[in-house]
Design goal:
Blueprint (H helix, E strand, L loop, with lengths): L3 H16 L5 H31 L27 H4 L4 H17 L1 H4 L8 H4 L12 H12 L6 H12 L15 H11 L7 E3 L6 H18 L3 H9 L2 E5 L2 H13 L6 E4 L14 E6 L14 H6 L5 H12 E12 L1 H4 L3 H13 L1 E8 L12 E7 L8 E6 L3 E3 L7 E5 L1 H9 L13 E5 H6 L22 H26 L1
Parallel strand pairs: 1-2, 1-4, 2-3, 4-5, 6-8
Antiparallel strand pairs: 5-7, 6-7, 8-11, 9-10
Helix pairs in contact: 1-7, 2-12, 4-7, 9-10
Length: about 500
Protein backbone atom coordinates (compact mmCIF):
# COMPACT_ATOMS: atom_id res chain seq x y z
CA UNK A 1 0.00 0.00 0.00
CA UNK A 2 1.47 3.36 -1.01
CA UNK A 3 2.07 5.68 1.93
CA UNK A 4 1.38 9.38 2.25
CA UNK A 5 5.13 10.07 2.25
CA UNK A 6 5.62 8.25 -1.05
CA UNK A 7 2.62 10.03 -2.55
CA UNK A 8 4.17 13.35 -1.55
CA UNK A 9 7.43 12.39 -3.25
CA UNK A 10 5.65 11.43 -6.45
CA UNK A 11 3.59 14.63 -6.32
CA UNK A 12 6.81 16.63 -5.95
CA UNK A 13 8.34 14.93 -9.02
CA UNK A 14 5.13 15.59 -10.93
CA UNK A 15 5.17 19.27 -9.94
CA UNK A 16 8.81 19.57 -11.01
CA UNK A 17 8.02 18.30 -14.50
CA UNK A 18 4.82 20.32 -14.72
CA UNK A 19 6.57 23.56 -13.78
CA UNK A 20 9.34 22.66 -16.22
CA UNK A 21 6.89 22.78 -19.11
CA UNK A 22 5.64 19.19 -19.52
CA UNK A 23 1.94 19.83 -19.00
CA UNK A 24 0.40 16.75 -20.65
CA UNK A 25 -0.10 14.08 -17.93
CA UNK A 26 0.52 11.30 -20.44
CA UNK A 27 3.83 12.88 -21.46
CA UNK A 28 4.86 13.20 -17.81
CA UNK A 29 4.19 9.51 -17.22
CA UNK A 30 5.98 8.53 -20.42
CA UNK A 31 9.13 10.49 -19.53
CA UNK A 32 9.10 9.07 -16.00
CA UNK A 33 8.68 5.61 -17.53
CA UNK A 34 11.90 6.04 -19.51
CA UNK A 35 13.79 7.10 -16.38
CA UNK A 36 12.37 4.20 -14.35
CA UNK A 37 13.45 1.83 -17.11
CA UNK A 38 16.97 3.27 -17.18
CA UNK A 39 17.15 2.88 -13.39
CA UNK A 40 15.82 -0.67 -13.73
CA UNK A 41 18.57 -1.58 -16.22
CA UNK A 42 21.22 -0.50 -13.74
CA UNK A 43 19.58 -2.59 -11.01
CA UNK A 44 19.54 -5.64 -13.30
CA UNK A 45 23.20 -5.14 -14.20
CA UNK A 46 24.07 -4.92 -10.49
CA UNK A 47 22.29 -8.24 -9.86
CA UNK A 48 24.22 -9.84 -12.72
CA UNK A 49 27.49 -8.53 -11.30
CA UNK A 50 26.75 -9.88 -7.84
CA UNK A 51 25.86 -13.28 -9.27
CA UNK A 52 29.06 -13.25 -11.33
CA UNK A 53 31.16 -12.48 -8.25
CA UNK A 54 29.36 -15.13 -6.21
CA UNK A 55 29.94 -17.95 -8.73
CA UNK A 56 33.30 -16.59 -9.92
CA UNK A 57 32.24 -16.58 -13.59
CA UNK A 58 31.85 -13.96 -16.34
CA UNK A 59 28.70 -11.83 -16.32
CA UNK A 60 25.90 -13.50 -18.29
CA UNK A 61 24.39 -11.28 -21.00
CA UNK A 62 25.65 -7.98 -19.55
CA UNK A 63 23.44 -4.97 -20.33
CA UNK A 64 26.29 -2.48 -20.04
CA UNK A 65 29.58 -3.50 -21.64
CA UNK A 66 33.01 -2.00 -20.94
CA UNK A 67 33.29 -1.18 -24.63
CA UNK A 68 32.07 2.02 -26.31
CA UNK A 69 28.36 2.76 -26.54
CA UNK A 70 27.16 0.82 -29.64
CA UNK A 71 24.29 3.27 -30.23
CA UNK A 72 26.55 6.29 -30.86
CA UNK A 73 30.07 7.04 -32.07
CA UNK A 74 31.01 9.17 -29.05
CA UNK A 75 33.51 6.67 -27.74
CA UNK A 76 31.96 6.85 -24.26
CA UNK A 77 31.91 3.50 -22.41
CA UNK A 78 28.50 1.86 -21.96
CA UNK A 79 29.29 1.72 -18.24
CA UNK A 80 29.00 5.52 -18.14
CA UNK A 81 25.35 5.21 -19.20
CA UNK A 82 24.32 3.53 -15.96
CA UNK A 83 22.01 5.36 -13.59
CA UNK A 84 24.49 4.95 -10.73
CA UNK A 85 27.10 6.78 -12.82
CA UNK A 86 25.30 9.69 -14.48
CA UNK A 87 23.20 10.57 -11.40
CA UNK A 88 26.35 12.12 -9.91
CA UNK A 89 27.16 14.21 -12.99
CA UNK A 90 26.64 17.97 -13.06
CA UNK A 91 23.21 18.91 -14.53
CA UNK A 92 24.57 20.00 -17.93
CA UNK A 93 26.70 16.90 -18.37
CA UNK A 94 23.90 14.64 -17.11
CA UNK A 95 21.46 16.16 -19.58
CA UNK A 96 23.80 15.69 -22.54
CA UNK A 97 24.65 12.12 -21.54
CA UNK A 98 21.03 11.08 -21.07
CA UNK A 99 19.75 12.83 -24.21
CA UNK A 100 22.61 11.98 -26.58
CA UNK A 101 23.94 8.71 -25.13
CA UNK A 102 21.54 6.91 -22.76
CA UNK A 103 18.39 7.51 -24.76
CA UNK A 104 19.78 6.22 -28.11
CA UNK A 105 21.19 3.27 -26.13
CA UNK A 106 17.81 2.17 -24.71
CA UNK A 107 16.02 2.86 -28.03
CA UNK A 108 18.25 0.34 -29.80
CA UNK A 109 18.62 -2.09 -26.91
CA UNK A 110 15.81 -4.33 -28.15
CA UNK A 111 17.44 -4.67 -31.59
CA UNK A 112 20.75 -5.70 -30.06
CA UNK A 113 19.31 -8.08 -27.46
CA UNK A 114 17.26 -10.51 -29.51
CA UNK A 115 17.73 -13.36 -27.06
CA UNK A 116 14.82 -12.24 -24.90
CA UNK A 117 16.99 -11.41 -21.89
CA UNK A 118 14.76 -10.89 -18.90
CA UNK A 119 13.89 -7.33 -18.03
CA UNK A 120 14.78 -5.82 -21.39
CA UNK A 121 12.73 -7.31 -24.21
CA UNK A 122 9.12 -6.45 -23.32
CA UNK A 123 9.62 -2.71 -22.96
CA UNK A 124 12.41 -2.09 -25.45
CA UNK A 125 10.64 -3.42 -28.50
CA UNK A 126 8.24 -0.46 -28.28
CA UNK A 127 10.98 2.17 -27.97
CA UNK A 128 11.78 2.90 -31.64
CA UNK A 129 9.61 6.05 -31.87
CA UNK A 130 10.12 7.26 -28.30
CA UNK A 131 10.98 10.95 -27.86
CA UNK A 132 13.08 12.46 -25.07
CA UNK A 133 11.18 15.53 -23.84
CA UNK A 134 12.95 16.63 -20.65
CA UNK A 135 13.06 20.42 -21.21
CA UNK A 136 16.18 21.52 -19.27
CA UNK A 137 19.19 20.11 -17.42
CA UNK A 138 17.80 21.51 -14.16
CA UNK A 139 14.50 19.64 -14.50
CA UNK A 140 16.20 16.36 -15.42
CA UNK A 141 18.71 16.59 -12.57
CA UNK A 142 15.93 17.43 -10.10
CA UNK A 143 13.75 14.51 -11.22
CA UNK A 144 16.68 12.04 -11.23
CA UNK A 145 17.63 13.15 -7.72
CA UNK A 146 14.08 12.75 -6.44
CA UNK A 147 13.59 9.33 -8.10
CA UNK A 148 16.90 8.19 -6.66
CA UNK A 149 15.63 9.09 -3.20
CA UNK A 150 12.68 6.68 -3.43
CA UNK A 151 13.37 3.16 -2.21
CA UNK A 152 11.89 0.91 -4.90
CA UNK A 153 13.51 -2.40 -3.97
CA UNK A 154 10.12 -3.88 -3.11
CA UNK A 155 7.99 -5.05 -6.07
CA UNK A 156 4.71 -3.98 -4.43
CA UNK A 157 6.06 -0.49 -3.76
CA UNK A 158 7.17 -0.09 -7.38
CA UNK A 159 3.82 -1.31 -8.66
CA UNK A 160 1.82 0.93 -6.33
CA UNK A 161 3.96 3.94 -7.21
CA UNK A 162 3.37 3.45 -10.90
CA UNK A 163 -0.33 2.88 -10.37
CA UNK A 164 -0.47 6.13 -8.40
CA UNK A 165 1.24 7.90 -11.30
CA UNK A 166 -1.24 6.42 -13.75
CA UNK A 167 -4.08 7.61 -11.54
CA UNK A 168 -3.00 11.16 -12.27
CA UNK A 169 -4.18 10.91 -15.86
CA UNK A 170 -7.19 13.19 -15.50
CA UNK A 171 -8.53 13.29 -19.04
CA UNK A 172 -9.93 10.73 -21.44
CA UNK A 173 -7.74 9.40 -24.20
CA UNK A 174 -8.56 9.30 -27.88
CA UNK A 175 -11.11 6.98 -29.46
CA UNK A 176 -13.12 6.63 -26.25
CA UNK A 177 -10.24 5.26 -24.16
CA UNK A 178 -10.19 5.93 -20.44
CA UNK A 179 -8.71 4.17 -17.46
CA UNK A 180 -10.74 1.53 -15.69
CA UNK A 181 -10.86 2.12 -11.91
CA UNK A 182 -8.56 -0.29 -10.11
CA UNK A 183 -11.27 -1.62 -7.78
CA UNK A 184 -13.53 -2.47 -10.74
CA UNK A 185 -10.63 -4.29 -12.41
CA UNK A 186 -10.00 -6.25 -9.21
CA UNK A 187 -13.68 -7.16 -8.99
CA UNK A 188 -13.71 -8.54 -12.54
CA UNK A 189 -10.52 -10.51 -11.94
CA UNK A 190 -11.91 -11.95 -8.69
CA UNK A 191 -15.12 -12.92 -10.46
CA UNK A 192 -13.24 -14.84 -13.18
CA UNK A 193 -10.81 -16.43 -10.68
CA UNK A 194 -7.74 -17.00 -12.91
CA UNK A 195 -5.58 -20.11 -12.42
CA UNK A 196 -1.95 -20.87 -13.36
CA UNK A 197 -3.23 -22.83 -16.37
CA UNK A 198 -4.89 -19.75 -17.90
CA UNK A 199 -3.59 -17.77 -20.84
CA UNK A 200 -4.91 -14.28 -20.18
CA UNK A 201 -5.46 -11.60 -22.82
CA UNK A 202 -6.60 -7.99 -22.94
CA UNK A 203 -6.98 -7.04 -26.65
CA UNK A 204 -7.23 -3.33 -25.75
CA UNK A 205 -4.75 -3.33 -22.90
CA UNK A 206 -3.85 0.37 -22.54
CA UNK A 207 -1.85 0.63 -19.30
CA UNK A 208 -2.23 -3.16 -18.70
CA UNK A 209 -4.32 -2.73 -15.55
CA UNK A 210 -6.25 -5.96 -16.08
CA UNK A 211 -3.09 -7.99 -16.66
CA UNK A 212 -1.42 -6.53 -13.57
CA UNK A 213 -4.47 -7.32 -11.43
CA UNK A 214 -4.60 -10.87 -12.82
CA UNK A 215 -0.93 -11.37 -11.92
CA UNK A 216 -1.58 -10.11 -8.38
CA UNK A 217 -4.55 -12.48 -8.04
CA UNK A 218 -2.45 -15.46 -9.17
CA UNK A 219 0.32 -14.57 -6.73
CA UNK A 220 -2.21 -14.31 -3.91
CA UNK A 221 -3.85 -17.69 -4.56
CA UNK A 222 -1.19 -19.78 -6.33
CA UNK A 223 2.17 -18.31 -5.31
CA UNK A 224 3.81 -21.65 -4.48
CA UNK A 225 2.56 -23.27 -7.67
CA UNK A 226 3.66 -20.54 -10.09
CA UNK A 227 7.15 -20.34 -8.55
CA UNK A 228 7.73 -24.02 -7.76
CA UNK A 229 10.33 -24.52 -10.52
CA UNK A 230 11.96 -22.77 -13.48
CA UNK A 231 9.38 -24.06 -15.95
CA UNK A 232 6.50 -22.65 -13.87
CA UNK A 233 8.31 -19.33 -13.44
CA UNK A 234 8.93 -19.14 -17.18
CA UNK A 235 5.29 -19.79 -17.95
CA UNK A 236 4.11 -17.17 -15.48
CA UNK A 237 6.56 -14.50 -16.65
CA UNK A 238 6.46 -15.08 -20.41
CA UNK A 239 3.53 -17.28 -21.46
CA UNK A 240 0.55 -16.20 -19.35
CA UNK A 241 -0.13 -12.54 -20.09
CA UNK A 242 -0.94 -11.07 -23.51
CA UNK A 243 -1.95 -7.53 -24.37
CA UNK A 244 -2.59 -5.64 -27.60
CA UNK A 245 -2.94 -1.96 -28.36
CA UNK A 246 -2.44 0.31 -31.38
CA UNK A 247 -1.03 3.22 -29.35
CA UNK A 248 2.75 2.91 -28.92
CA UNK A 249 2.74 5.23 -25.93
CA UNK A 250 0.29 2.93 -24.17
CA UNK A 251 2.36 -0.11 -25.14
CA UNK A 252 5.41 1.41 -23.44
CA UNK A 253 3.44 2.42 -20.35
CA UNK A 254 1.67 -0.95 -20.16
CA UNK A 255 4.94 -2.87 -20.55
CA UNK A 256 6.58 -0.86 -17.77
CA UNK A 257 3.53 -1.33 -15.55
CA UNK A 258 3.87 -5.09 -15.93
CA UNK A 259 7.63 -5.03 -15.39
CA UNK A 260 7.41 -2.97 -12.21
CA UNK A 261 4.81 -5.46 -10.96
CA UNK A 262 7.21 -8.35 -11.46
CA UNK A 263 6.17 -9.68 -14.89
CA UNK A 264 9.45 -9.53 -16.77
CA UNK A 265 8.45 -10.52 -20.29
CA UNK A 266 4.72 -10.36 -21.05
CA UNK A 267 3.60 -10.49 -24.68
CA UNK A 268 2.46 -6.89 -25.08
CA UNK A 269 2.56 -5.80 -28.69
CA UNK A 270 1.20 -3.51 -31.36
CA UNK A 271 -1.96 -4.73 -33.02
CA UNK A 272 -5.02 -3.02 -34.43
CA UNK A 273 -7.29 -5.72 -33.08
CA UNK A 274 -10.38 -4.85 -35.09
CA UNK A 275 -8.62 -4.41 -38.41
CA UNK A 276 -6.26 -7.38 -38.47
CA UNK A 277 -7.48 -10.92 -38.97
CA UNK A 278 -6.71 -13.09 -35.94
CA UNK A 279 -5.52 -16.29 -37.56
CA UNK A 280 -2.52 -16.68 -35.24
CA UNK A 281 -4.48 -15.96 -32.06
CA UNK A 282 -7.81 -17.59 -32.92
CA UNK A 283 -9.02 -19.71 -29.98
CA UNK A 284 -5.73 -19.12 -28.17
CA UNK A 285 -6.81 -17.67 -24.81
CA UNK A 286 -8.68 -19.13 -21.86
CA UNK A 287 -9.48 -15.80 -20.16
CA UNK A 288 -10.34 -12.40 -21.66
CA UNK A 289 -10.40 -9.32 -19.42
CA UNK A 290 -11.07 -6.02 -21.16
CA UNK A 291 -12.58 -2.56 -21.22
CA UNK A 292 -12.31 -1.81 -24.94
CA UNK A 293 -12.82 1.66 -26.44
CA UNK A 294 -16.44 2.01 -27.46
CA UNK A 295 -16.98 5.52 -28.74
CA UNK A 296 -16.38 5.02 -32.41
CA UNK A 297 -17.26 3.19 -35.58
CA UNK A 298 -15.16 1.68 -38.37
CA UNK A 299 -15.61 1.46 -42.11
CA UNK A 300 -16.38 -2.02 -43.36
CA UNK A 301 -13.29 -1.82 -45.57
CA UNK A 302 -10.99 -1.34 -42.56
CA UNK A 303 -12.63 -4.00 -40.39
CA UNK A 304 -11.44 -7.57 -40.13
CA UNK A 305 -13.46 -9.84 -42.40
CA UNK A 306 -13.41 -12.48 -39.66
CA UNK A 307 -15.34 -10.19 -37.34
CA UNK A 308 -17.84 -9.09 -39.97
CA UNK A 309 -18.73 -12.76 -40.45
CA UNK A 310 -19.81 -12.85 -36.80
CA UNK A 311 -21.73 -9.57 -36.80
CA UNK A 312 -21.95 -7.03 -39.61
CA UNK A 313 -21.65 -3.66 -37.91
CA UNK A 314 -19.46 -0.58 -37.77
CA UNK A 315 -19.80 -0.15 -34.00
CA UNK A 316 -16.57 -0.90 -32.13
CA UNK A 317 -18.33 -2.11 -28.96
CA UNK A 318 -20.03 -4.92 -30.90
CA UNK A 319 -16.96 -5.75 -32.98
CA UNK A 320 -14.87 -6.17 -29.85
CA UNK A 321 -17.28 -8.74 -28.41
CA UNK A 322 -17.10 -10.63 -31.70
CA UNK A 323 -13.30 -10.40 -31.42
CA UNK A 324 -13.34 -11.81 -27.88
CA UNK A 325 -15.33 -14.82 -29.04
CA UNK A 326 -12.82 -15.52 -31.80
CA UNK A 327 -9.86 -15.24 -29.44
CA UNK A 328 -11.34 -17.46 -26.73
CA UNK A 329 -10.72 -21.18 -26.44
CA UNK A 330 -13.71 -23.46 -26.09
CA UNK A 331 -14.51 -23.28 -22.39
CA UNK A 332 -12.74 -19.95 -22.04
CA UNK A 333 -14.23 -17.19 -19.86
CA UNK A 334 -14.59 -13.47 -20.36
CA UNK A 335 -15.37 -10.47 -18.19
CA UNK A 336 -15.68 -7.31 -20.27
CA UNK A 337 -17.09 -3.82 -19.83
CA UNK A 338 -19.67 -2.61 -22.36
CA UNK A 339 -21.78 0.53 -22.69
CA UNK A 340 -25.42 0.09 -21.72
CA UNK A 341 -26.46 0.39 -25.38
CA UNK A 342 -25.06 -3.09 -26.03
CA UNK A 343 -27.61 -4.49 -23.57
CA UNK A 344 -30.74 -3.08 -25.18
CA UNK A 345 -29.81 -1.65 -28.61
CA UNK A 346 -32.55 -2.33 -31.15
CA UNK A 347 -30.46 -2.64 -34.31
CA UNK A 348 -30.15 -5.96 -36.09
CA UNK A 349 -26.46 -6.18 -35.12
CA UNK A 350 -27.20 -5.56 -31.42
CA UNK A 351 -29.90 -8.22 -31.29
CA UNK A 352 -27.83 -10.68 -33.31
CA UNK A 353 -24.85 -10.42 -31.00
CA UNK A 354 -26.93 -10.77 -27.85
CA UNK A 355 -28.62 -13.82 -29.34
CA UNK A 356 -25.21 -15.36 -30.03
CA UNK A 357 -24.18 -14.84 -26.40
CA UNK A 358 -27.40 -16.33 -25.04
CA UNK A 359 -28.11 -19.13 -27.52
CA UNK A 360 -24.71 -20.18 -28.94
CA UNK A 361 -22.52 -19.44 -25.91
CA UNK A 362 -23.14 -19.42 -22.15
CA UNK A 363 -24.01 -15.98 -20.84
CA UNK A 364 -23.25 -16.16 -17.13
CA UNK A 365 -23.97 -12.72 -15.76
CA UNK A 366 -24.71 -9.04 -16.30
CA UNK A 367 -23.61 -6.46 -13.72
CA UNK A 368 -25.21 -3.06 -14.14
CA UNK A 369 -22.93 -0.25 -12.90
CA UNK A 370 -23.90 3.32 -11.94
CA UNK A 371 -23.02 6.02 -14.45
CA UNK A 372 -20.50 7.74 -12.16
CA UNK A 373 -18.07 4.81 -12.02
CA UNK A 374 -15.86 6.24 -14.78
CA UNK A 375 -15.88 9.87 -13.70
CA UNK A 376 -14.05 12.18 -14.18
CA UNK A 377 -13.19 10.51 -17.52
CA UNK A 378 -16.76 9.89 -18.67
CA UNK A 379 -20.28 9.75 -17.31
CA UNK A 380 -21.48 6.93 -19.59
CA UNK A 381 -23.53 4.10 -18.08
CA UNK A 382 -21.80 0.75 -18.37
CA UNK A 383 -22.16 -2.91 -17.46
CA UNK A 384 -19.94 -5.94 -17.01
CA UNK A 385 -20.73 -8.92 -19.23
CA UNK A 386 -19.53 -12.34 -18.06
CA UNK A 387 -19.72 -15.24 -20.50
CA UNK A 388 -18.18 -18.59 -21.37
CA UNK A 389 -17.45 -19.74 -24.91
CA UNK A 390 -19.05 -23.10 -25.69
CA UNK A 391 -20.21 -22.85 -29.33
CA UNK A 392 -23.02 -25.17 -28.21
CA UNK A 393 -25.17 -23.02 -25.92
CA UNK A 394 -25.53 -23.73 -22.24
CA UNK A 395 -27.33 -20.64 -20.97
CA UNK A 396 -30.05 -21.71 -18.54
CA UNK A 397 -30.33 -18.68 -16.29
CA UNK A 398 -28.56 -15.33 -16.45
CA UNK A 399 -27.47 -13.76 -13.18
CA UNK A 400 -28.18 -10.02 -12.88
CA UNK A 401 -26.81 -7.63 -10.27
CA UNK A 402 -27.77 -3.98 -9.79
CA UNK A 403 -24.65 -2.22 -8.47
CA UNK A 404 -25.64 1.04 -6.79
CA UNK A 405 -22.48 1.91 -4.85
CA UNK A 406 -18.86 1.04 -5.66
CA UNK A 407 -17.16 2.49 -2.59
CA UNK A 408 -16.70 6.00 -4.01
CA UNK A 409 -18.93 9.00 -4.54
CA UNK A 410 -20.38 9.13 -8.04
CA UNK A 411 -19.35 12.72 -8.76
CA UNK A 412 -16.19 14.01 -10.43
CA UNK A 413 -14.26 13.96 -7.15
CA UNK A 414 -14.82 10.21 -6.61
CA UNK A 415 -14.15 10.45 -2.86
CA UNK A 416 -13.81 7.13 -1.05
CA UNK A 417 -16.77 6.16 1.13
CA UNK A 418 -17.79 3.17 3.25
CA UNK A 419 -20.87 2.17 1.28
CA UNK A 420 -19.95 -0.43 -1.36
CA UNK A 421 -21.84 -3.26 -3.05
CA UNK A 422 -18.66 -4.96 -4.27
CA UNK A 423 -18.19 -7.46 -1.38
CA UNK A 424 -21.85 -8.48 -1.59
CA UNK A 425 -21.66 -8.67 -5.38
CA UNK A 426 -18.67 -11.03 -5.34
CA UNK A 427 -20.20 -13.21 -2.62
CA UNK A 428 -23.48 -13.54 -4.48
CA UNK A 429 -21.71 -14.19 -7.80
CA UNK A 430 -19.78 -17.04 -6.25
CA UNK A 431 -23.04 -18.51 -4.91
CA UNK A 432 -25.24 -17.54 -7.86
CA UNK A 433 -26.53 -21.07 -8.47
CA UNK A 434 -28.48 -20.76 -5.23
CA UNK A 435 -30.10 -17.44 -6.12
CA UNK A 436 -33.12 -18.97 -7.83
CA UNK A 437 -35.43 -17.99 -5.00
CA UNK A 438 -34.39 -14.32 -4.99
CA UNK A 439 -37.18 -11.92 -5.79
CA UNK A 440 -36.94 -9.53 -8.73
CA UNK A 441 -37.04 -6.68 -6.21
CA UNK A 442 -33.69 -7.80 -4.76
CA UNK A 443 -30.33 -6.44 -5.88
CA UNK A 444 -29.42 -9.72 -7.61
CA UNK A 445 -31.56 -12.43 -9.18
CA UNK A 446 -31.65 -15.04 -11.94
CA UNK A 447 -33.62 -14.71 -15.17
CA UNK A 448 -34.44 -17.83 -17.27
CA UNK A 449 -33.09 -17.91 -20.81
CA UNK A 450 -36.57 -18.31 -22.31
CA UNK A 451 -37.73 -15.06 -20.73
CA UNK A 452 -34.70 -13.22 -22.14
CA UNK A 453 -35.34 -14.70 -25.59
CA UNK A 454 -38.97 -13.58 -25.48
CA UNK A 455 -37.75 -10.02 -24.80
CA UNK A 456 -35.63 -9.79 -27.98
CA UNK A 457 -32.61 -10.82 -25.90
CA UNK A 458 -32.76 -7.54 -23.99
CA UNK A 459 -30.11 -7.68 -21.23
CA UNK A 460 -30.85 -4.43 -19.41
CA UNK A 461 -31.64 -5.09 -15.76
CA UNK A 462 -34.57 -2.67 -15.80
CA UNK A 463 -36.38 -5.02 -18.17
CA UNK A 464 -36.54 -7.68 -15.45
CA UNK A 465 -36.18 -5.88 -12.13
CA UNK A 466 -39.41 -5.20 -10.27
CA UNK A 467 -39.78 -1.88 -8.49
CA UNK A 468 -41.88 -1.74 -5.33
CA UNK A 469 -43.82 1.48 -4.96
CA UNK A 470 -44.84 2.60 -1.49
CA UNK A 471 -48.35 3.92 -1.24
CA UNK A 472 -48.41 7.53 -0.10
CA UNK A 473 -51.45 8.94 1.71
CA UNK A 474 -52.37 12.54 0.83
CA UNK A 475 -54.81 14.87 2.59
CA UNK A 476 -58.19 15.41 0.90
CA UNK A 477 -58.20 18.32 -1.61
CA UNK A 478 -60.44 20.46 0.65
CA UNK A 479 -58.01 20.03 3.55
CA UNK A 480 -55.08 21.06 1.30
CA UNK A 481 -56.95 24.21 0.18
CA UNK A 482 -57.75 25.05 3.80
CA UNK A 483 -54.07 24.70 4.78
CA UNK A 484 -52.99 26.93 1.89
CA UNK A 485 -55.42 29.66 3.01
CA UNK A 486 -54.07 29.48 6.55
CA UNK A 487 -50.53 29.82 5.21
CA UNK A 488 -51.54 32.86 3.16
CA UNK A 489 -53.12 34.42 6.24
CA UNK A 490 -49.93 33.85 8.29
CA UNK A 491 -47.78 35.36 5.53
CA UNK A 492 -50.05 38.42 5.29
CA UNK A 493 -49.94 38.98 9.05
CA UNK A 494 -46.16 38.61 9.05
CA UNK A 495 -45.79 41.20 6.27
CA UNK A 496 -47.96 43.70 8.17
CA UNK A 497 -45.89 43.17 11.32
CA UNK A 498 -42.69 43.74 9.33
CA UNK A 499 -44.06 46.96 7.79
CA UNK A 500 -44.92 48.20 11.28
CA UNK A 501 -41.37 47.56 12.48
CA UNK A 502 -40.01 49.52 9.52
CA UNK A 503 -42.20 52.51 10.39
Amino acid sequence: MITGELKSKVDSIWDTMWSGGISNPLSVIEQLTYLLFIKRLDELQTLKERKSARVNAPIENPIFEDEANPATDSGRSSQDLRWSRFRDFAPEEMYNVVKDEVFPFIKTLGERRTGGDQGTSSFTRHMSDAIFMMPTPRVLANVVDQLDGIDMDDRDTKGDLYEYMLGKIASAGQNGQFRTPRHIIKLMVDMTAPTPKDTICDPACGTAGFLVAASENLREHYNEEIFKDEKSKQRFGSETFFGYDFDNTMLRIGSMNMELNGIENPDIRYKDSLSQDEEDDEERFSLILANPPFAGSLDYESTSKDLLQVVKTKKTELLFIALFLRLMQNGGRAAVIVPDGVLFGSSKAHKSLRKILVEDQKLDGVVSMPSGVFKPYAGVSTAILLFTKTNSGGTDNVWFYDMKADGFTLDDKRTEQEESDLPDLLKRWQGREGEGDRARTDQSFLVPKDEIASNDYDLSINRYKEVVYEEVQYDPPKEIVKNLKNLEKEIDEGLKELEGMLG
